């Protein structure tokens, strides 16, 4: 069927479903069935065939494994031991506890793969400590919300896995590419944290005994990012294999060495992870089914040709895409944004001559900012509950950090080498 009217109907149906607050699984599932019905001779069954083919993709395994590993570390002692090491090493530095928060989030992001898990694990320890030490509560709140988003760009990253699945870009290459942009964003946050709190310090000099004690206590925790990132970058692990290693190591260390994890707690953490996966996977499968349909109908290629006819330069394309992504980050969660937009925008970027890895980093940093923008900013929602403050207060707290991340985004856009240097 070549009529435009089914597309008009879909364009009306989707906003209506979203306005009625329907789950994204419903929206994506109905959209997939609608497209196949009207444009593939009523063959709705293709949706089930797509689901089966998609579910066999081994990259899917990495998502629940990283989430489970991150939850194990957050509920065990690995997170608190990392925080203790960072706090000991930064104690005499002006604004040292704030710097410790950034460093701890950076390290834990390289373990958990999740922004929200990172913020909760580090913030649960440091937020009350920072307020007690005299740091402004609004600054502390904003810093932890912003530093938590580093889990999106510092590998391993669950959004990176989603992006790789939806676009066919190597997930291992995405992980490698995220290291330098992630460290640069952490650097910006760290410099601002020190400058803003230059009048505050925890001690006049380094406490050698505490540093040695914290390092001894946290030696196994400090090895986690080394093992994961080192294994991926050296080629010993694929993205999925590194998730297995991370989970096995976390359970082994927290259960047998630190003895902070019981079988009962592990069972409860596993149940929570299964519930999350049960909500995510059907949505992901339906989104990929739509992507398969669009690919068969050559929609991305046609969209790229249309964009090329409308935008005459790469700069114009980048401006349009960044505005779109920043708006999308305000309105939908990062997973939905990647599922919907990545398959359409990535071919357009390639048609404009952009490196696919560089464009992936641009898109991910854009959507990272979306974690801090209302009304759908996930870190704002979670922080308001976890730190017992209002959503409006969280929104005010993150304003300067959104500006900082905006500077980071501009740098990532203008400096492609930041994203591609480690791939050479």
Outline of the structure:
By secondary structure, the chain is mainly alpha-helical.
Strand count:
0
Shape: globular
Q: What is the number of helices?
A: 22
What number of structural domains do the residues give?
A: 2
**Computed structural class:** mainly alpha
Give the C-alpha Rg.
22 Å
Spatial separation of the terminal alpha carbons: 47 Å
The amount of beta strand, in percent, is: under 5%
Main sheet makeup:
none
Approximate helicity band: over 70%
Order of helices and strands: HHHHHHHHHHHHHHHHHHHHHH
The low-confidence runs, each spanning 5 or more residues with pLDDT under 50, are: none
Query: Could you report the average pLDDT, rounded to the nearest whole number?
Result: 80
Structure, described:
The protein is mostly helical. Helix content is 79%, strand content 0%. Helix 2 (24-39) packs parallel to helix 14 (263-296), helix 7 packs across helix 19 and helix 11 packs across helix 18. The chain is globular.
Question: Could you name the key traits of this structure?
Answer:
single chain; 424 residues; mainly alpha; 2 domains; 22 helices; 79% helix; 0% strand
């Amino acid at each position: 069927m070549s009529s435009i009217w089914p597309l008009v109907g879909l364009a009306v149906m989707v906003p209506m479903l979203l306005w009625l607050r329907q789950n994204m699984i419903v929206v994506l599932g109905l959209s997939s069935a609608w497209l196949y019905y009207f444009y593939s001779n009523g063959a709705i069954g293709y949706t089930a065939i797509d689901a089966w083919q998609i579910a066999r993709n081994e990259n899917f395994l990495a998502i629940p494994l990283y989430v489970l590993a991150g939850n194990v570390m957050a509920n065990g002692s690995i997170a608190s031991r990392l925080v203790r090491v960072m706090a000991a090493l930064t104690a005499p530095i002006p604004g040292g506890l704030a710097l410790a928060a950034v460093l701890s989030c950076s390290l834990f992001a390289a373990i958990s793969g999740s922004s929200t898990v990172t913020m909760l694990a580090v913030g649960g320890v440091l937020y009350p400590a920072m307020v007690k030490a005299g740091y402004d509560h609004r600054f502390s709140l904003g810093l932890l919300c912003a530093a938590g988003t580093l889990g999106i760009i510092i590998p391993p990253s669950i959004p990176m896995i989603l992006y790789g699945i939806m676009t066919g870009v190597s997930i291992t290459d995405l992980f490698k590419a995220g290291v330098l942009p992630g460290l640069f964003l952490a650097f910006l946050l760290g410099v601002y944290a020190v400058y803003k709190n230059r009048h505050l310090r925890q001690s006049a000099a380094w406490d050698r005994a505490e540093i040695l004690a914290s390092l001894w206590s946290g030696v196994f925790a400090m090895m986690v990012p080394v093992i994961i990132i080192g294994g991926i970058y050296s080629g010993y692990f694929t993205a999925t294999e590194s998730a297995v290693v991370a989970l096995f190591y976390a359970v082994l260390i927290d259960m047998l060495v630190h003895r902070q994890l019981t079988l009962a707690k592990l069972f409860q953490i596993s149940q929570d992870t299964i519930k999350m996966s049960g909500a995510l996977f059907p949505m992901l499968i339906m989104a990929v089914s739509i992507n398969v349909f669009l690919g068969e109908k050559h929609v991305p290629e046609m969209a790229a040709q249309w964009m090329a006819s409308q935008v005459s330069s790469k700069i114009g394309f980048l401006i349009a895409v960044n505005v779109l992504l920043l708006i999308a980050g305000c309105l939908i969660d990062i997973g939905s944004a990647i599922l919907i937009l990545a398959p359409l925008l990535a071919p357009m970027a390639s048609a404009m001559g952009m490196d696919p890895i560089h464009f992936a980093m641009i898109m991910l940093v854009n959507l990272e900012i979306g974690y801090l923008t209302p009304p759908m900013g996930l870190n704002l929602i979670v922080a308001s509950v976890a730190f017992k403050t209002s959503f409006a207060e969280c929104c005010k707290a993150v304003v300067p950090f959104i500006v900082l991340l905006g500077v980071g985004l501009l740098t990532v856009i203008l400096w492609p080498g930041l994203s591609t240097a480690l791939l050479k």
